[in-house]
Amino acid sequence: MADIRDRQPSRRRLLHLSAGAAVLLPFAGLVRPGMTRAATPACDPTPRQTAGPYFSPGSPQRTDFSGDGPDGDVMVLTGRVLDTACRPVAGALLDIWHADPAGAYDNQGFHMRGHQFADDAGGYRLTTLKPGLYPGRTRHIHIRVQAPGGPVLTTQLYFADEPGNDRDRIFRPDLVMAQGADGGYGFDFVVAK
Description:
This protein is mainly beta. It has helices spanning 4-7, 11-24; strands spanning 74-83, 93-97, 113-117, 123-129, 140-146, 152-158, 178-179, 185-186, 189-191. It has a domain at 74-191: Aromatic compound dioxygenase (Protocatechuate 3,4-Dioxygenase, subunit A, Sandwich).
């Protein structure tokens, strides 16, 4: 029966193995044919866009706009607010507004308008009615996001495969919401702190 010391690598063997690993390490990330490489999470700041003419300060705190307008398709938007180091931003303010299903903005009250705060994991959730087409624009949602004490990010979110995306002068593909198998939408915001 062999002694356990015979199965333990010697100091010389360990040095030899680590030298070989140092030579191979630069090639460890190469992709072989037929393989895909996992994307590195990027926490680049979310692009800014115009607020448009219909922002109203002082919206009520709420997470459900689905009872605000005429009949329409209920949609759920979820995601997170992260900082540029990919860390969750607890307590981030999200102020959201959009056109109703008929394409009209409420400029007298707060239909299809509200604000909420991200939870401890940076998460948010909005239940609303899918916005209609506002004349001259593709379907979109306005949003302002602000980390506690940080600068305000004003942007817009878009829907994939909308016929108006190609004609909209400010549409950006990197602001398209992901759509899940359950029909819900998702978008993670990256903000400066």
